[in-house]
Design brief:
Layout lengths: L5 E2 L9 H6 L8 E4 L2 E4 L1 H11 L10 H15 L3 H7 L11 H11 L5 H26 L15 H14 L16 H20 L4 E2 L2 H9 L23 E6 L8 E8 L3 E7 L6 E7 L3 E7 L2 E2 L2
Pfam family, one: DUF7962
InterPro entries: DUF7962 (IPR058268), Glutathione-S-Trfase_C_sf (IPR036282)
Protein name: DUF7962 domain-containing protein
Length: 306
């Protein structure tokens, strides 16, 4: 897309003081700020980039291709591919010697990250990941296509499908060669390699991002305006919420102990927007969450209720 942007690199684990300063409780990264609108969850971030920068959009235009794109998004995230990929990490990974990292990931996933538990989960995880490689090798990529939708260059469908496998191949020791290898899955490995090269080429052509330190990034956000109108609340939504109600929203698959809270600004079938006060100048920000695998409910008298 060749979009000019600034970045603020965050710590591997909590606390993330820059997020705290903005008033965002969401604990996953990345997040995207366009003005004082803060977009959480990569799925929503990709959607917003596609909408706001249509000249560089990577998404499919045909209904059948859009359906494949959406199914691949669901397959890698909701279908358990990423969960199994995270369970395939080797127990020898240096970060697992850091108790702060281990505690952070246990809070994030809700399961033990003890080394013995990780070793015990790996065989089952690799079994599922191998099955995913088989699906790609003998199904999606079986006819020798270069890209998922037979496009001339990678599309959003490739991004939705490739990222957990791309991550695993870059994680030393994650994939056991006796189970998953270039020799066993040549088409998948070639596809991942093409994707890596395409990303490298795109980076060379893209503007160099400006790197900001935490305080600079927070100030940059707080000086900006909102990037989109506040919207409305769908009166037909099953939750029956009303504009201006005090609500909280959080993901229910991972990072579920960290809830964002604010006044309900907008509610559609795909997005919930909360108005919250930052800790900097007391200015309002708007926190955007997707609806899928997120929960939103009213907060009353300091306690949430169903």
């Amino acid at each position: 897309m060749r979009i000019e942007y600034a970045q603020c690199i965050q710590p591997v684990y909590l606390p993330r003081e820059d997020m705290n300063a903005l008033g965002v409780k969401y604990r996953r990264i990345p997040v995207m700020s366009i003005g004082r609108d803060i977009y959480c969850d990569t799925r929503l971030i990709l959607q917003k980039l596609e909408e706001k920068f249509p000249s560089g959009a990577l998404g499919a235009s045909q209904p059948d291709q859009k359906a494949i794109e959406k199914l691949l998004e669901s397959w890698t995230i909701d279908g358990g591919i990423f969960v199994r990929a995270s369970q395939a990490i080797p127990a020898e990974m240096p970060l697992l010697n850091d108790p702060r990292f281990v505690k952070d990931r246990e809070d994030y996933t809700g399961r033990s990250w003890d080394k013995e538990n990780i070793k015990a989960m790996r065989p089952e995880a690799l079994t599922h990941i191998r099955d995913a490689f088989v699906f790609l090798e003998t199904g999606l990529l079986a006819d020798g296509r270069q890209w998922v939708l037979k496009t001339e260059k990678p599309s959003l469908a490739d991004i939705e499908a490739v990222w957990p496998f791309h991550w695993l191949l870059g994680l030393r020791g994650a994939l056991a060669p006796s189970v998953i290898s270039k020799e066993k899955f040549p088409k998948v490995y070639a596809w991942i390699d093409r994707f890596s090269k395409a990303v490298s080429t795109a980076k060379l052509a893209a503007p160099e991002p400006t790197t900001l330190k935490g305080a600079e990034a927070v100030e940059y956000v707080m000086q900006a305006n909102f990037s989109e109108p506040e919207g409305d609340v769908d009166a037909s939504d099953p939750l029956g919420l009303k504009k201006g109600q005090d609500v909280e929203s959080w993901p229910i698959d991972s990072g579920f102990r960290h809830h964002d809270r604010g006044l309900l600004v907008s509610l559609t079938s795909s997005e919930v927007v909360l108005a919250s006060q930052s800790k900097v100048r007391g200015k309002e920000i708007r926190i955007h969450h997707p609806r899928w695998n997120y929960r939103t409910r009213v907060v009353s008298a300091g306690e949430a209720k169903l």
